Automatic annotation (TrEMBL):
GO terms for molecular function: FAD binding; oxidoreductase activity. This is FAD-binding protein. The keyword Nucleotide-binding does not apply. It comes from the Bacteria. Its cofactor is FAD. It comes from Phenylobacterium montanum. PROSITE patterns: FAD_PCMH. Residues 45-223 form the FAD-binding PCMH-type domain.
Length: 492
């Protein structure tokens, strides 16, 4: 997007105005202070924002957005900055609004099994807050120790247990949001379903393009009575993928089902010592929960399926400590791979489970063609792939090659009937690939939704859509003499 030079020239004025709306030390404009906000976890893209504003409550978020809307200033919402798609990448002519100070759990309601939290509360903190009563929050991204619930809503995050318990969208019941005009709205609540349009579903995964979340009502669940995990090793990724397809095809839905290839398994074992076998090409981690007899029977069924797929290793956890150690290796896989490669590019695409063996084979072929190693760590149960392309940014051309390799993986996901993203979002990373999945009519319709909430394109512009269009080009709602067409239709 072209820089707004007029806004750039008003940088000092904008910072001064923001200091009248929120605490003076909550507005950052010096180069050193802006440095932490120049990138999210997709560090290949970097851009310091014009100014950073750190509001402390909903009223201050509203005041900041109202000012930016009235003065034509772009806004980038930011949680913990753990996004892997550049969704929180700053704008040189925009204000980054960080939500880190909205970090309180407002209410724990065990009777209705909900927690109300501000967006800066970390994912894991919700489970910790209700653990003493035997409850937890199910979605568990690998970054759950750092990522925030507001960011989880923006990206519709998942995690290792999303196979059985669903993504963020399946585990939230209500939102408080601030629109670009400063208007505060509430969607849903502590009840199961709200009437009318599913605006809650629309906002979940909207990547900060429609509003800023200031409060989230989440569903909490009682911890299952029995939980056990299995490690299953195979001589090839194709055999591991076949086992996944057969388990799901048999009607078995584990609590979690993850796969790691030889490279990632050994890196994690060196890093965390989880007890993984080192001589397997693919390792499945399968978790079962529920009544003890059901768990035992399901483990036996899965072991038989794995043996039918040529498993060369099988073991089960005999204690909760051992089960958690199995998962510790998986959750540490990304930092572990950072210890064997200067840089890596983490992809995020989703495919039909039955195509796993084919896709694993084709990714290996692409790895040979590009001459770059790839480590596969992914949510096998729901087909959400996370290939990590290993490269060295200090070698000329390797970043470009890694990005081209990644583009081919994502196009492959779409080709086999999948989608560009499972939980990391589109951001800037996949923005220019949207045409591989959607035609122009699809993109225009999505843009009309954006225009309904943000007609000036001030909220997180330059993300998701490969080409912004003026709302007038897409057809505004026409009002004649105070009347819209078809007034009997419900509107929002």
């Amino acid at each position: 997007m072209p820089l707004d030079t007029e806004v750039l020239g008003r940088r000092g004025e904008i910072a001064t105005a923001l200091r009248r709306l929120i605490a003076a030390d909550s507005v950052i404009e010096d180069a050193v202070g802006l440095k932490p906000y120049e990138t999210d976890a997709l560090t290949a893209y970097q851009q310091p924002p014009l100014v950073v504003a750190l509001p402390s409550n909903t009223a201050e978020v509203s005041a900041v957005l109202s000012y930016c809307h009235a003065n034509g200033v772009k806004v980038v919402p930011r949680g913990a900055g753990t996004s892997l798609s550049g969704g929180a990448l700053g704008l040189a002519d925009g204000v980054t609004v960080g939500l880190s100070k909205l970090n309180r759990i407002l209410k724990i309601d065990y009777e209705n099994r909900v927690v109300v939290a501000q967006p800066g509360v970390t994912n894991l903190a919700i489970s910790h807050a209700v653990a003493e009563r035997g409850f937890y929050y199910a979605p568990d991204p690998s970054s759950q120790i750092a990522c925030t619930i507001g960011g989880n809503v923006a990206e519709n995050s998942g995690g290792v247990h999303c196979l059985k318990y669903g993504m963020t969208t399946n585990n939230i019941l209500g939102l408080e949001m601030v629109l670009i005009t400063g208007e505060v709205i509430r969607l849903g609540g502590a009840h199961l379903d709200a009437g009318g349009y599913d605006l809650l579903g629309l906002m979940t995964g909207s990547e900060g393009l429609l509003g800023i979340v200031t409060e989230v009502t989440v569903r909490i669940l009682p911890k299952p009575s029995h939980v056990r995990a299995m490690l299953l090793g195979f001589s090839s990724c194709e055999a591991g993928g076949e086992c996944v397809a057969r388990v799901i095809g048999a009607g078995i839905i584990p609590a979690g089902m993850e796969m790691m290839d030889h490279l990632s398994t050994n890196a994690s074992e060196d890093f965390i010592h989880a007890g993984y076998p080192r001589d397997v090409e693919a390792l499945l981690i399968v978790e079962l929960d529920g009544p003890e007899s059901e768990v035992a029977e399901t483990i036996a069924r899965i072991r038989a399926i794995a043996e039918g797929c040529g498993a060369i290793y099988a073991s089960e956890s005999n204690s909760d400590e051992e089960r958690l150690r199995f998962w510790a290796g998986r959750k540490a896989a990304f930092p572990a791979l950072g210890s064997i490669s200067p840089d890596y590019y983490c992809m995020d695409g989703t495919i039909p489970r039955r195509r796993l063996p084919e896709v694993m084979k084709r990714i290996a072929e692409l790895s040979d063609r590009y001459g770059l190693r790839v480590a596969n760590v992914f949510h096998a149960g729901d087909g959400n792939l996370h290939p990590l392309i290993l490269y060295d940014a200090n070698r000329p051309g390797e970043l470009d090659m890694a990005e081209a390799f990644g583009d081919e993986i994502l196009k492959l996901c779409v080709e086999v009937g999948g989608v560009l993203t499972g939980e990391h979002g589109v951001g800037v990373e996949k923005r220019d690939l949207m045409g591989a999945m959607f035609n122009q009519a699809d993109l225009d319709q999505q843009m009309r939704v954006k225009c309904a909430f943000d007609p000036k394109h001030l909220l997180n512009p330059g993300k998701v859509f490969p080409e912004l269009k003026r709302c007038a080009e897409l057809g505004r709602v026409h009002v004649h003499r105070g009347q819209v067409r078809f007034p009997e239709l419900p509107r929002f």
